[in-house]
Amino acid sequence: MLIKSHNKHDCTESEVTDYSIYVKRRQFIEASARSLGLAAIAPSLLLSACSDAATENAAKGISNSDQPRDELTPYEDVTSYNNFYEFGLDKSDPAKLAKNFKVKPWSVRVEGAVEKPGVYDLEDLLKGLPQEERIYRLRCVEAWSMVIPWNGFALADLIKKLKPTSAAKYVQFETLYDPQQMPGQKGRALDWPYVEGLRLDEATHPLAFMATGLYGKELPGQNGAPLRLVVPWKYGFKSIKSIVAIRFTEKQPATSWNIANPGEYGFYANVNPKVSHPRWTQRKERRIGEFLKRPTLPFNGYGDQVASLYQGMDLKRYF
Ligand SMILES: Nc1nc2c(c(=O)[nH]1)N[C@H]1C(S)=C(S)[C@@H](COP(=O)(O)O)O[C@H]1N2
Ligand SMILES: [Mo]
Predict the structure, then answer these.
(1) What is the best residue among 84, 176, 195 to mutate for testing ligand 1's pocket, by most ligand atoms within 8 Å of CB?
(2) Which ligand sits closest to the CA of 288?
(3) Is it true that the peptide bond before 226 is cis, omega within 30 degrees of 0?
(4) Domains, the chain, with CATH or none
(5) Relative to the CA of 235, which ligand 1 atom is closest?
(6) How far is the CA of 142 from the centre of ligand 2 (A)?
(7) Predicted TM-score (pTM) above 0.70
(8) Higher confidence at residue 54 or residue 178?
(9) How far is the CA of 66 from the centre of ligand 2 (A)?
(10) pLDDT (0 to 100) of residue 59
(11) pLDDT, tens only, 195-248
């Protein structure tokens, strides 16, 4: 029997095949950046297919020597191992049950403390927002993680376009409610529709992202098509999928997992290895596709960029 030895630091051949479309896009981005003379383009946009957060950090002069290397989670895993309770509780359910999920036409309601409320066609909502690609780690509260190349735009750019009023201190997001299409909503696993929220300063932080695609392709239904939030320093449940409403509020809005179990899931949900879930530790995580567990990093490794948002807060209390 032949046992393939994998050097963790190289791309394997199958990964290269998986990534071929993605890599082409990367090379295109790199070439366009160069031809535009964009020396200051974010280093994360210039990573090669098997580059990773370590490289990104190295570019910023941050040492990652004690960290195992991050590789992109294969497209297959990103799109077949999902939490999306509207499409079933099993990790393999969403890929099957969201196959025919209809995302066109799609509209988004903008309401609350905002100067430009209304019901927007998705295309109109996104008009004029600079498109980007971001590689982010996603850390699920169930102690697994993935590394995903997302396509989309900065949430801050959308919020700027919608112009919240000075009364707005938070923003709440809501998922589609449609039990005909989302069979999970016929059960009572959660209080439907799924809702999530951020403080406005979190939402306008440059890392907060709205995804419309991954790996350079349209977002699959199971990953939250056609529009989902990505908040890389928080547990995965904050990254709400298939958004139909964005609401600006004065008071801290309700969030689905907090409603379901306030003792286990707080509003903030910042990734924190020091605060255990009541039923399991958050010190380690299993990267999907890997065997050995990795240590979980504070703020999922984005602490140098986001910790200042929480200065003076007791993060054990505000978990
Ligand atoms: N509407 C909705 N959004 C959701 C969920 C959900 O059940 N419903 N699950 C969350 C959880 S727990 C995680 S870990 C991430 C998973 O995102 P992914 O499937 O793209 O990896 O989606 C989040 N967004
Ligand atoms: Mo999760």
Answers:
(1) 84
(2) 1
(3) yes
(4) 72-310 (3.90.420.10)
(5) 14
(6) 6
(7) yes
(8) 178
(9) 26
(10) 52
(11) 999 999 999 999 999 999 999 999 999 999 999 999 999 999 999 999 999 999
Question: Which amino acid is residue 29, in one-letter code?
Answer: I
User: Which listed ligand is nearest to 231 at the C-alpha?
Assistant: 1
Long-range Cβ pairs for the range 17-26 (8 Å, 24+): 18/74, 18/75, 18/76, 19/49, 19/50, 19/72, 19/75, 19/215, 21/215, 21/216, 21/217, 22/49, 22/75, 22/149, 22/215, 22/216, 23/48, 23/49, 25/133, 25/216
Q: Which residues surround ligand 2, an ion (CB under 5 A)?
A: 83, 140-141, 236-237
- Ligand 2 center to residue 241 CA distance, Å? 12
**Which of the residue ranges 18-22, 101-105, 138-142 would you say has the lowest mean pLDDT?**
18-22
Mean pLDDT calculated for residue range 75-84: 98
Query: Quick one: pLDDT band at residue 285, thresholds 50, 70, 90?
Result: very high
- List, for residues 84-97, the tens digit of each pLDDT value: 999 999 999 999 99
Instruction: Find the largest Cα–Cα distance for the chain.
Output: 67
Q: Which residues are within 8 A (CB) of 197 and not within 5 positions of it... i.e. 6 or more apart?
A: 170, 171, 172, 173, 249, 252, 253, 254, 255, 267
Atom of ligand 1 nearest to the CA of 94: 19
Contacts of residue 290, defined as CB under 8 A and 6 or more positions apart, other chains included, come to none
**What residues line ligand 1, using a CB cutoff of 6 Å?**
82-86, 138, 140, 175, 194, 223-224, 236-237, 239-242
